Amino acid sequence: MNAAFAELTALLGPERVLTEPEHLAVYGFDGTAAISGEAGCVVFPECTAEVGEILKLATKYAAPVVSRGSGTGLSGGSVPSAGCIVLCLVRMDRVVELDSANLTILVESGVVTQTVAGLADAEGLLYPPDPGSMKISTIGGNVAENSGGLRGLKYGITRDYVMGLEVVLADGSIHWLGSKCVKDVAGYSMRDLFIGSEGTLGIITRVLLQLVPKPAARRTMLATYSRMDAAAATVSAIIAARIIPCTLEFLDRITIRCVEDFAHIGLPRDAEAILLMETDGHPAVVAEEAEQMERIARENGATDVTVAADAAEAARLATARRAAFSALARVSPTTILEDATVPRSELARMINHIQEVGARHRLRIGTFGHMGDGNLHPTFLTDERDHEEMERVELAMQEIFDFAVELGGTITGEHGVGLAKKRFLPRAIGESSVALMRQVKRALDPQGILNPGKIFD
Amino acid sequence: MNAAFAELTALLGPERVLTEPEHLAVYGFDGTAAISGEAGCVVFPECTAEVGEILKLATKYAAPVVSRGSGTGLSGGSVPSAGCIVLCLVRMDRVVELDSANLTILVESGVVTQTVAGLADAEGLLYPPDPGSMKISTIGGNVAENSGGLRGLKYGITRDYVMGLEVVLADGSIHWLGSKCVKDVAGYSMRDLFIGSEGTLGIITRVLLQLVPKPAARRTMLATYSRMDAAAATVSAIIAARIIPCTLEFLDRITIRCVEDFAHIGLPRDAEAILLMETDGHPAVVAEEAEQMERIARENGATDVTVAADAAEAARLATARRAAFSALARVSPTTILEDATVPRSELARMINHIQEVGARHRLRIGTFGHMGDGNLHPTFLTDERDHEEMERVELAMQEIFDFAVELGGTITGEHGVGLAKKRFLPRAIGESSVALMRQVKRALDPQGILNPGKIFD
Fold first, then answer.
1. In the predicted structure, residue B122 carries a pLDDT above the cut 90
2. A185 vs B373: CB contact, 8 Å cut-off?
3. How many CB atoms are closer than 10 A to CB A191?
4. Cα–Cα distance measured from residue B117 to residue B102, given in angstroms and rounded to the nearest whole number
């Protein structure tokens, strides 16, 4: 590999190729607990042509390449394989074009998601996907993982806003996939194949995103429950009333307590569940829907409903949800955030199952997540040094994922498979579907140098 | 092939295998002008398992298989290749489940699109994609072609509502791709690869669709223009006002006259363009947007704006657009409907170009289409028996597609590539992107028996 690293240094200059162990250590992790790896080098391309040259070199030396942005992934997708080239795209952070007439923005993949959101906002537009990591994660990573967020029910996920991609294949060839046209059916949607492919099919270098008009109004409220099933019934009743809120977030008792200890919002520590609900759109619609949602929450057993009087109070209420992961991460040495997902109608059964599994395996599991789209985050508060407990975590996870699949759900709603879920994938989607994915992988990356060992072996 | 047909007859019974020339003749066409083929037999499976058995036989005999539903396609995608097995899915027309709690409907692929729309409507829900053919086309065909419709700008296209697919591969294996979860990132989205793959990667047997709440109100209006650029300016100004109407349809002078001769709606025969505009949603929003749209149309040079007073008048106005293709099809022996598509901001340039090309090549081209999403239908009124004129049609098409691509658009917005656009594809997306698609095709259909020669050779 030293010959490959020397050629990379000749290509990019020594300041853009890291090979010292103390530098490499930093790039051995992403946001996933208990998973790490050791890169051979880290390179920082500044343009698509350089990415192409790097991949030609990688192909020549059959060297594995693991791409990454800010490294906020939660399934180990950008954790380096041993001795690989880490291709870090953070220097490719140009905003190429904000096209207000066509409601699109074209950015390099290293642009931080919040930057896109901010630019859209300044034009009276909205970039709807809002993954929890958006203040630091990059658009390229969001597309590679097909990230979700808090607004999935109403607005969908990252895939729904990607109109075009520039990708570099393993052989270094550069492809533009997609267009500014809402309708474009000229051949297979290779664009959609790359979205969510976790760096295993190609390197995403540019992203063309669709924006929408910014909603003129929003209303936030927080409902408190002494019984979890009452919270689930509220969600069902809201949908049955044909209301699609932009946010319908859930916190269980463990999470509520951790958040309150951390953020001192004034949450009821004895509540069994809280729902954070938000509606956005035209002021008349928001007023009407907020009133209906408050009434439905009370009718379905909410012990209290607080409607935010202004933006400041809305932000305070939203902190309850935004702070959930950080609050849980503080209380244990190792915090494993999962994202088992089920059809919305099965939420109550899934949450009960998680609690039952946690009790039976003597584990602390805080659960929160996106009730509107059935995307739950059972979060294991554990310690990776305790091998016996980790074995129970493993058993509990398998039971939780099996049940999610049994209910028509999935083992990952928004974090991806990466390394963390790989062992659960065949049982979840079937060996034959995994085989199908392998055939596609082989067709596009015959040497298998792109993010090897992620998603499947 | 006779051995294959005999085995098919043994499998399905003689009444579900057609081999007589007079029967086969009916299946030699789809909705595309001037393209036909001769099938070897036509088979009618009634369940997924039978489709699997048919494909196993096809693989055994290396026999080409062309799947179809109602045959309304407009790019020759379901025109049979010589001697092939036509796999006609119209008998697989069961509605499996309407899940009101999760806002989904699961149907077999032979279900007519209008049936889905009707079932959704009865539940207070909406299936938004509304291709022009929806009263006769099937959902399987819509998914295979990734059909568009009149509501693309606001609601998107077929892809945006497909949550899951059951597909049968060339080897007869059956795969379920997707789930009822809005968020599901367990591996590559094979589902999205099959959407729009025009029957070349697998046979779609079941489709899980997402529904949305039905808008409570809608308002329809028709604006008349003496200058085409004033119509385009209206569209730009509406978007700049951050209004996303559900419909923004355009008819040029030739189309207006043909429609008026055909449907006697009372359209102004001397107008250069008309815009059919519709907003839907909450009554308060609809009222406000309709008023703004009417004002914007007048400010941008509309000579007249008619706002429908009731549903009956709205239906009458909508006829202007719904009847466009039928009206144009009456006036010439051969009517070739194209769907060149450009970013919305380039519409005026594209329409001018089409008119200039038509005049220069002495051709009659009526143009109508979806202004909101840049999807135009330049329609050649010609006669396929006139070989000299057909040569000019060919030249004009190439010039129109080249210009669409130059403007950042595409050669097909919603009809697919099929046979009709195949020769234009490499120049439009580049040889290297076509090669990428070929690699995927080879991985999933190594013998190349599924709809051979469609999209690319």
1. yes
2. no
3. 22
4. 17
The H-or-E segment that residue A406 falls in is helix A387-406
Q: How far is CA B203 from CA B31, B125, B449, in A?
A: 20, 28, 12
Helix (H) or strand (E) holding A337: strand A334-337
DSSP B327-391: HHHHTSSEEEE-B-B--GGGHHHHHHHHHHHHHHTT-EEEEEEEGGGTEEEEEEEE-TT-HHHHH
Q: Which of residues 56-115 of A touch B (CB under 8 A)?
A: 99-104
As a whole number of angstroms, the distance between CA A431 and CA B187 comes to: 12
CA distance A207 to A159: 11
- Quick one: tokens of A19? 């090979």
Average pLDDT over residues B288-300: 98
Return the DSSP state at A171: T
Question: What pLDDT is recorded for position A19?
Answer: 95
Tokens of B221: 């209006």
Alpha-carbon distance of B386 to B392, in angstroms, equals 10
For B39, residues 6+ apart whose C-beta sits below 8 A from its C-beta are: B24, B27, B28, B66, B80, B83, B84, B85, B86
Q: Tell me the three state secondary structure of residue A66.
A: strand
Residue B89, both tokens: 């899915």
CA–CA separation, A387 vs A392, rounded Å? 9
Q: What is the mean pLDDT of chain A?
A: 96
For residue B149, give the nearest of B128, B176, B173, B165 by alpha carbon.
B128
Between CA A143 and CA A197 the distance in angstroms is: 9
Cα radius of gyration (chain B): 22
Query: Mean pLDDT, 10 residues at a time, over chain A (457 residues)?
Result: 92 97 95 93 98 98 98 97 97 98 97 98 97 96 96 95 98 97 96 98 98 96 95 94 95 95 92 96 96 98 96 91 90 94 94 96 96 94 96 96 97 97 95 96 98 97
Q: What is the rounded CA–CA span in Å between residue A454 and residue A200?
A: 7
Measured distance CA(B300)–CA(B297) in Å, rounded: 5
* Amino acid type, A406: E
Of A145, A153, A288, which is closest to B185 when you measure between CB atoms? Answer: A145
Q: In whole angstroms, what is the distance from residue B154 CA to residue B244 CA?
A: 6
Across the interface, of A156, A186, A192, the residue whose CB is closest to B411 is A186
Distance CA B255, CA B270 (A): 11
Residue of chain A minimizing CA distance to B417: A186
CA distance B298 to B259: 24
Owner of token pair 């730009």: B236
B408 inside 8 A of chain A by CB: yes
pLDDT at B1: 73
